[in-house]
Amino acid sequence: MPEKRIVDPARSQYFASLGRKGALIRLARYDARELVQPALDGQQAKFERQVDPQGKLSGKERARRADAARRAHMQGLALKSVEARRRSGRLRMVVRRPR
Questions:
Q1: What gap in Å lies between CA 78 and CA 93, rounded to an integer?
Q2: DSSP H helical segments within the chain, as ranges?
Q3: What is the rounded distance in angstroms from the CA atom of residue 55 to the CA atom of residue 53?
Q4: Which of 17, 51, 92, 99 is the most buried (most CB within 10 A)?
Q5: For residue range 14-27, what is the model confidence (pLDDT) as tens digits?
Q6: What is the rounded distance in angstroms from the CA atom of residue 68 to the CA atom of residue 59?
Q7: Burial, 93: exposed, middle or buried (Cβ in 10 Å; 0-12, 13-18, 19+)?
Q8: Strand, helix or coil for residue 7
Q9: Measuring CA to CA, which residue among 60, 73, 40 is closest to residue 52?
């Protein structure tokens, strides 16, 4: 049977603070767009491959479809977030009555 790990919240908060500090130092030294651009390029390429695996579409059409696929992906993440907050009790549905 695997051994259970005991998580110390203070230790977790300490390491999270160290990580945030490191991220802020990195952002102070470099342009944020420069740091993020390789990830954005990779994401764009992934969605382009997803919508045009054979590479038959024009560049403009491939980009349009890739943008739609990216937006659909982000909408799916937003829906998952709402569902997780609802399950955890952090989201209350507000019902508004018509006037």
A1: 16
A2: 9-29, 32-51, 59-88
A3: 6
A4: 51
A5: 999 999 999 999 99
A6: 14
A7: exposed
A8: coil
A9: 60
